Amino acid sequence: MTSRIEKVELIYKHKKATGRKLTVVSHIPIDIDTAWAKVQTSELLNFVAKGKVTFKPAGGHFPEIWQEGSTVSTKMLIYGFIPFGGVHNLFVEKIDSSNKTIQTKEWDNIVKIWNHKISMKKTELNKIVYEDEIIIYAGLLTGFVTWWAKSFYKHRQKRWLIIAKNVINEHKLK
Q1: CATH numeric code, 2-173
Q2: Residues 133, 24: Cα–Cα separation, whole Å
Q3: Which end of the chain is less enclosed by CB atoms within 10 A, N or C?
């Protein structure tokens, strides 16, 4: 697993601002079609976030499958009990099945910009490169939020390894 953080210039409320681009990359032993099917589900989000963030959707539940063009509002509880940011809004901007990418634009009262892109690329039989790229802007808290996001996305990608292991074990049982 590798990660990097870069400063980026962006526009927030018609003004220039300095945000951060966080990139976290892992090699995961899983078939790309299986990974792609799973990444489009709310079940996967809840699984990979478990232990770091609990989501309490405003509408009672997340959709079973994410839909391009939809917006979901949720409350986030850091470590399962610390409320953060008020209502967090997640707009699913693009789901590109041919290129295996999902892009969201997210925001709340603290994090003004949280633009997340998930990319998957097949490297060899039953192996992928999985990448999370997040553009973050939270005013004076940008550095702190980026630091926390780095630990969160590393956690998520470690949880992906659990999924991959479970998929491998399911195939062995057949």
Answers
A1: 3.30.530.20
A2: 7
A3: C
Q: Look-up: residue for tokens 């997210």? A: 106
* Contact present, 172 and 166 (Cβ < 8 Å): no
User: CA nearest 149: which of 121, 120, 105, 116?
Assistant: 116
Beta bridge pairs of residue 103? 94, 117
pTM, to two decimals: 0.94
Strand order in the sheet with 53-57: 2-12, 15-28, 127-137, 113-124, 101-107, 82-96, 71-78, 53-57
Chain segment 26-65, per-residue pLDDT in tens = 999 999 999 999 999 999 999 999 999 999 999 878 999 9
How large is the angle between the packed helices 32-39 and 142-173, nearest 10 degrees?
130
- Give Dmax (Cα) for the chain: 57
